[in-house]
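ESCALATION

Customer reports they have been waiting on this structure for their group meeting. Please prioritize. Original submission:
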Amino acid sequence: MHSLRRGRGSLPERCARSGRGYTDCIAPTVAPMSSRPPISACVITLNEADRIEACLDSLAFCDEIVVVDSGSTDATRELAAARGARVLLRAFDGYRTQKDHAVRNAAHDWILFLDADERVTPALRASIEAARDAGFAAAGYRCARATEYFGAFLRHGNAYPDRVLRLFDRRRGGFRGDREIHEHVEVDGAVATLAGDLEHHAYRSLDDQLQRLDRYARMMAAHLHVAGRRARIANILINPAWRFLRGYLLRGGFRDGWRGLVYASVEANYVRQKFIRLWLLQRQSGR
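Update from on-call: job pushed to the front of the queue and completed.
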């Protein structure tokens, strides 16, 4: 990790003189000795004390780690700081906005973004370092994400390979658009695929999954409603069934055994909730 130059006065003092808040004032960094492009790892958190250490340990090869926390009441911030992360505190007003804030406050242009429940595997790390040694030929890099589900990783269905773009040059892309849920990175330029998986330890329990998907369904329904999307009875009946059939049968989710069945069922229920909520919003607004 590269240390921050203090310059004239402490960082809080210089931020105060500039009129900016402490968490929005970035100190310049010492240029890395290597000619390899430096990487800033970014993570957003809220009460992730049980998972943040494993996440940050997997990012130890990066040149800095930026954690944007939205008010954890556990030891998340302290644990992150102990791992060498630069911790910023910011009120949460949307996933995309929170992640964009982390990207903008990073010291380096190459960004590796992880959620607190994700971990870079040794194979993925080797692939990232090989791409960096080659000077990053693409504008962004995607990788497969493997979700751990009740003690085993799902390897089929809608859950895998679930390719996500997480390594990118912020000068050519970022978290664009206005959708705050199911946000993703877009870049201008070529996108390459990295070898190795990103581990996703998404759910602490079935209740955790159901509560999270209920929150996502509310947010997506609200977003679709504002965007003018309409829900019909067919969406409530057919879309969940198609999601289940596509994941469980066509994409081989049944090969993950009972885990694949539970995952496909819960995922289909999320689609049903999303369209029911959108349908109700239409009725309430008279649209």
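Sent to customer with the following note: The longest helix spans residues 257-285.
Escalation resolved.
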